[in-house]
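Example 9 (inverse folding). The structure is encoded as follows.
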């Protein structure tokens, strides 16, 4: 047990993590019960009939933590995340921290345009949330 600390330096765009999920109801218990669709509780075991669940939006690759071509960097509280077009991890779970350099082009406008073109039509682009970010993520 313990906490692992990860820091990232990225060029990317912050997005609301909820926008990468499609909410759905999932059955809580496995009992076979009639009329469970409209039930609040299971008439057989008494448990809540439904839980909140979600499906990933199209374009999401949860196994690789990618959305479209972009790396996903999470916030510790998972309320927002960043889609990164360039990413560098700073330090690692072994507690080794060295200075790192994130390679970026002289002009970020091409990266900005690429992200805007892909995220804009999906309602995920926010001009004010694009930039160079330093993010710390703690895994408990
Ligand atoms: Zn049940």
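The amino acid assigned to each position is listed next.
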């Amino acid at each position: 047990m313990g906490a692992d600390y990860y820091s990232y330096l990225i060029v990317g765009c912050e997005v609301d993590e909820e926008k990468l999920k499609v909410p759905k109801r999932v059955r809580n218990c496995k009992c076979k019960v009639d009329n469970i669709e409209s039930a609040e509780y299971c008439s057989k075991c008494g448990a809540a009939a439904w839980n909140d669940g979600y499906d990933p939006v199209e374009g999401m690759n949860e196994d690789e933590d990618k959305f479209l071509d972009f790396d996903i960097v999470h916030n510790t509280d998972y309320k927002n995340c960043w889609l990164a077009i360039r990413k560098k991890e700073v330090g690692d779970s072994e507690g080794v921290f060295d200075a790192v350099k994130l390679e970026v082009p002289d002009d970020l406008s091409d990266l900005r345009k690429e992200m805007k073109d892909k995220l804009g039509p999906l309602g995920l682009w926010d001009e004010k949330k694009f930039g160079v970010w330093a993010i710390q993520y703690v895994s408990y």
